[in-house]
Amino acid sequence: MKRILLLQTGGTIAMEIRSDREGEVSNKACTKNLLNQIPQLNQLADITVKELFFKDSSDIDVDDWKIIASTIENEYNTYDGFVILHGTDTMAYTASALSFTLRNLGKPVIFTGSQVPLSVLRSDAARNMINAIQMATLSFNEVGICFNDKIYRANRCTKLSISDFNAYSSPNFPPLAEIGLNIDVKYTFKPVTGSFYCMKDFSRDVIVLRLYPGAKPERFIKLIDNGVKAVIISAYGSGNLPLSGSQNMLPLLKTCIEKEIFVVIASQASHDAVDLNKYESGRVARDLGCLSARDMTMEATITKMMHLLANYENQHQIRDFFNRSIAGEVTV
Fold first, then answer.
1. Of 29, 35, 119, 260, whose CB neighbour count within 10 A is largest?
2. What angle (nearest 5°) sits at the alpha carbon of residue 113, between those of residues 142 and 180?
3. Is the domain of 99 the same as that of 193?
4. Same domain, yes or no, for 176 and 302?
5. Is-above-0.85 flag for pTM?
6. What are phi and psi of 91, to 5 degrees?
7. Is residue 227, in this structure, part of any structural domain at all?
8. pLDDT at 28
9. Which of 12, 88, 94, 112 is catalytic?
């Protein structure tokens, strides 16, 4: 029987409804109680539980990413797979970050959670946990998100719904597996060619600017004076930005480039890819030296840049690695 390490970080799956305030939740439930309520899990694997912390996922920080990564690094040779229980709000960020941190990963690392606490009658928690544990026993050498009978590549995933059981979507990459009566694995996993190692550092010196009609670029410029190393612009369509009138973004782009601040052009559209060759504004950004997020999710774009800034000092290296696929996060 495979040995699986179950890591608890908090989130809805670990919560319980308080009796004194209707609708309010408290994360006092213990992970072991979760396992006791789902005895089928013991038929799937030899499960060891480790409680790292209990946090609402909106409170999860880069330091928490390092704790999760360090735990996997320290226990890598002891267990056959890892399952992380995590709140849904920032699961795609944490899972994307881990995909860049865990290099030459040869074992499954599966994130899951629930939209409804396990203590509630019509919860999705048991199904998600059973699926995640079973996936962690298979030959699956990626960081994945298991939710609503699907396994997604973590760095291709984004939260889709606040309340629907179908909480996640992978806009530009198909699910790695779908779970029905059987597990239908749809992706051929590549063999690992090197030894596992971990790169746990992340830079906080990244900001995200979302364009909207009527935005004042001069206000954006004021935000890049305090040690910012990268600016990710959530632009329109295939990477379009206004280049005329009071919304002209050209001064912002030039200011960033002059200060050797990376500029990444992403899209507010979740499907398809940024193409800086398609329209004039994209070509202007490209010629200035801006980077394209292509078909990466915003979560992957942010965590990838945070990872690169912390682990590489050379601007050419950072630019080169950003343009490559590190963990399958972008179509090449």
1. 29
2. 70
3. yes
4. no
5. yes
6. -55, -40
7. yes
8. 53
9. 12
CA distance 27 to 29: 6
Q: So what's the pLDDT on residue 67?
A: 97
Boundary residue ending a domain (178, 198, 218): 198
The tokens of 233 are what? Answer: 């612009």
Taking the C-alpha atoms of residue 212 and residue 231, their distance in angstroms, rounded to an integer, is 16
Higher-confidence position of 289 and 189? 289
CATH code, domain with 21: 3.40.50.1170
* pLDDT class of 161 with cuts at 50, 70, 90: confident
3-class secondary structure, 292: strand
What is the structure's pLDDT at 192?
A: 87
183 φψ region: left (φ > 0), alpha (ψ -120 to 50), beta (else): beta
Which structure tokens are listed for 50? 């480790």
Q: Among residues of the chain, what percentage have pLDDT more than 70? A: 93
**Domain assignment present for 328:** no
At 303, the amino acid letter reads T
User: Is residue 330 in a domain?
Assistant: no
Spatial separation of the C-alpha atoms in residues 290 and 282, rounded to whole Å: 9
Q: Is 303 a residue of the active site?
A: no
